[in-house]
Write a structure and sequence with these properties.
- The structure holds two protein chains of two kinds.
- Chain A is built from 20 helices and no strands.
- Chain A is mainly α.
- Chain A has a domain at 275-474.
- Chain B is mainly alpha-helical.
- Chain B has one domain (2-198).
- In chain B, helix 2 packs parallel to helix 6 (144-163), helix 3 runs parallel beside helix 7 (171-199) and helix 5 packs antiparallel against helix 6 (144-163).
- Classes of the chains: A mainly alpha, B mainly alpha.
- Chain A binds chain B through residues 113, 115-116, 118-119, 122-123, 125-126, 129-130, 133, 136-139, 141-146, 148-149, 152-153, 156, 159-160, 163, 166-167, 169-171, 175-178, 191, 193-194, 220-221, 224-225, 280, and chain B through 113, 115, 131, 138, 144, 147, 151, 154-155, 158, 161-162, 164-165, 167-170, 172-174, 176-177, 180, 183-184, 187-188, 191, 194-195, 198-199, 204, 207-210, 212.
């Protein structure tokens, strides 16, 4: 049953290759993703069994799957309006690649076998490369080449990590298996050094894909040059999927009694990501690169949250949801602004609030949300992470995080306010707000707002169970 | 079988040195394809003749030994580039570095907590040396095509290590991994073509407009 959910998007992907009508091809995206979302929700509420040996959903993957599916649906709806504007570029490549991307992202989330997960993760890299290259100019070639090479090499190291994990089982007498459930059972008998080395390589490999500093170098380029909706999918969806892969490693290390080392490594990389993101966000003149560094920052927060453990892990799980939705809103709104000004640089983008009342407001509100201001969701999750840090008596870590967050707020604020406030510069294009291009970011923002004031019971339970999977099992 | 395995692995190491020291791109692609073909025999010599190892060998040979090199050769025929010019580090220093790294890999492998059956074997040090050589190629060369070769050598090194563990990787996953590699190189080839069309060169130092 889960296999149907994973592979059915390939059917419309094939269909899109033979469909002669432009609009029909575009509408395949929201149609497919609506069905995907419906199926995902049925799985999430336990209507279908989802606990196979190869494919299965636990609380952790359910959370990630629901979020990515919602995000994909919003982006698919946006894509119809966007592709209509970009008839010069065509949608013959974009539509099938997006659908294949959806399929493999689902596979990566649902696979219970490390090798299968790796294969799906690498497939998402390949499927998203043509999406980044959508604009077919010099800058997007450069971004695509860096993305493809850095992420492929990174993910190759993750494969080495997986092989190390397999090697750690060789000496223990149990049959070598890379099924997550088998590994978690046999974890205490695995060879410690190989398992630790395996985790380090997993962290480096999937950390590259997730964009944790210092492995984030492809991120500003790729997010900056890709269309807004691709940026939203990468920053909200793919990063969450890669984080899930790292969390599998944490689960394994915790089961083997080595959780402390895994958490230490995550904490270190998380703090470094926060630091570097804060540095590069101050005086950043490019609004999409700004969002890319914001993504690095929030990946860092996720890593710090899991690195601290306890309440902070719960906060990180909540933050994963909030970050994905807010990034969706921000990237789509930034895409509209870029469309209107034919630029994403502060030298040309001014007064977006007047020029594009809806998109400008969404962009500004998205900024307020992502920097952790009440009443939006990220405030709750960042506050929970900080409470977890201080409850664990990690005062230095807590203060560092607070300083970095404040720097990010100031740096990001300067750019976003300059872009949205003031007199509007002359727009070279006749672009105006249109419903199909602002309905998705608006929905994302409303969801984030809702999460800030009220956390629904089922979601809260799912997050709690997800966080519990990362703790030591009694 | 042990002698055959070791002979194969030694040939793999020699090929590492050849790619590090050669400036002729066509020759480099050819020897990397030979390396892939040699590696595809490894499952047979290590695990003996079985359905799994045979399929793995055939799959690896088709992809690493034949299909991917063919794609790359076609790519450089279209862009008419023959030689690597001005590597970031010269050929002789790269060779010396390669030698140091290979020696280091052999020394390092002795310290690894390998299971007794793998002690003293050439598999693990060769895997490490090939991976490092691939990395060296990735870092020190400017041509996009040589960087792809570096990536392929990195994958080859991981493959050598993976052969030791082939029972952990079911056939389906193994096939998926190889297919990923193939499609990945195919997409890289397309990007390569676009680079040469847009910049009329394959040197990646022109890809430097995006930075802070």
């Amino acid at each position: 049953m889960l296999a149907i959910l994973i592979f059915f998007p390939l059917l419309p992907a094939a269909l899109s290759l033979v469909t002669p009508w432009y609009q029909a091809r575009s509408w395949l995206l929201p149609a497919t993703s609506a069905l995907h979302l419906l199926l995902v929700l049925l799985f999430a509420f336990g209507r279908f069994p989802a606990d196979g040996h190869w494919l299965g959903l636990d609380a952790l993957s359910t959370v990630v799957l629901v979020v990515t599916s919602i995000l994909f649906f919003g982006c698919a709806l946006y894509a119809v309006g966007y592709l209509d504007l970009r008839r010069d570029r065509g949608n013959q490549v974009m539509v099938p690649c997006l659908l294949v991307f959806l399929s493999f992202m689902t596979l990566a989330v649902a696979s219970r076998h490390m090798g299968l997960m790796w294969m799906a993760a690498e497939a998402t890299t390949i499927a998203s490369a043509p999406l980044i290259y959508f604009n077919r100019n010099r800058l997007s070639i450069e971004a695509t080449w860096k993305y493809l090479l850095i992420c492929s090499v990174g993910i190759a190291l993750a494969m080495l990590g997986i092989l190390f994990v397999a090697y750690s089982a060789l000496g223990s007498g149990t049959p070598v298996s890379l099924h997550l459930d088998d590994l978690l059972v046999s974890a205490p008998t695995l060879s410690g050094p190989w398992l630790r080395a395996g985790f380090v390589f997993l962290l480096v490999g999937f950390g590259t894909k997730m964009g944790l500093a210092p492995l984030h170098t492809w991120k500003p380029d790729a997010y900056g040059e890709a269309p807004g909706l691709v940026g939203a999918l990468l920053a909200g969806g793919l990063t969450s999927v890669s984080f899930l892969a790292i969390l599998r490693g944490v689960q394994l290390m915790t089961a083997a009694g080595d959780g402390a080392m895994a958490r230490q490594a995550l904490l270190g990389m998380g703090l470094l990501s926060l630091l570097l993101a804060a540095i590069f966000m101050v005086r950043q003149p490019d609004i999409k690169r700004l969002l890319a560094y914001s993504s690095v920052e929030h990946m860092g927060l996720l890593a710090v949250g899991v690195g601290i453990g306890g309440l902070a892990t719960f906060g990180a799980m909540l933050h994963l949801v909030n970050n994905a939705l807010t990034k969706g809103c921000l990237f789509l709104a930034a895409g509209n602004i870029q469309r209107a000004y034919a630029s994403k640089n502060l030298s040309e983008v001014r007064g977006a609030l007047r020029a594009l009342p809806v998109s400008g407001t969404l962009f500004l509100a998205g900024f307020i949300a992502i920097t952790g201001s009440p009443p939006f969701g990220p405030f709750m999750s960042e506050f929970t992470i900080l409470r977890g840090i201080f409850a664990g008596d990690r005062v230095v870590v807590g203060l560092l995080v607070l300083i970095f967050l404040a720097t990010v707020f100031i740096g990001m604020g300067a750019t976003v306010l300059a872009a949205t406030q003031g007199e509007a510069t002359e727009k070279p294009t006749g672009f105006t707000d249109r419903p199909l291009l602002y309905i998705s970011p608006l929905i994302f923002l409303l969801m984030v707002l809702l999460l800030g004031v009220y956390l629904p019971e089922p979601l809260q339970n799912a997050l709690r169970q997800a966080a519990a999977l990362l703790e030591v099992q009694p | 079988m042990m002698e055959l395995t070791n002979a194969l692995l030694l040939a793999v190491i020699l090929i590492n040195f050849f790619t590090l020291g050669s400036s002729r791109l066509v020759a480099c692609i050819r020897v990397v394809s030979v390396q892939g073909a040699l590696l595809s025999l490894l499952p047979l010599t290590t695990h003996g003749l079985s359905g799994h190892s045979l399929l793995l060998a055939v799959g690896a040979f088709t992809f690493k030994g034949a299909f991917i090199p063919w794609l790359l050769l076609r790519a450089i025929r279209e862009v008419r580039i023959r030689r690597e010019v001005e590597p970031i580090i010269g050929y002789v220093p790269t060779l010396i570095l390669g030698a140091l790294i290979t020696a280091g890999a052999f020394l390092f492998a002795d310290f690894l907590p390998l299971i007794p059956a793998h002690h003293g074997g050439l598999n693990v040090p060769t895997a490490l040396a090939t991976m490092f050589a691939g990395f060296l190629l990735l870092i020190t060369r400017r041509k996009a095509i040589t960087q792809i070769l570096g990536y392929l050598m990195l994958e080859n090194g991981i493959f050598i290590f993976g052969v030791l563990l082939s029972e952990a990787m079911p056939m389906m996953v193994e096939a998926g991994v190889l297919l990923d590699l193939l499609v990945g190189v195919f997409v890289m080839g397309i990007v390569l073509n676009q680079i040469s069309r847009e910049f009329s060169t394959l040197n990646t130092e022109h890809l430097s407009a995006l930075k802070e």
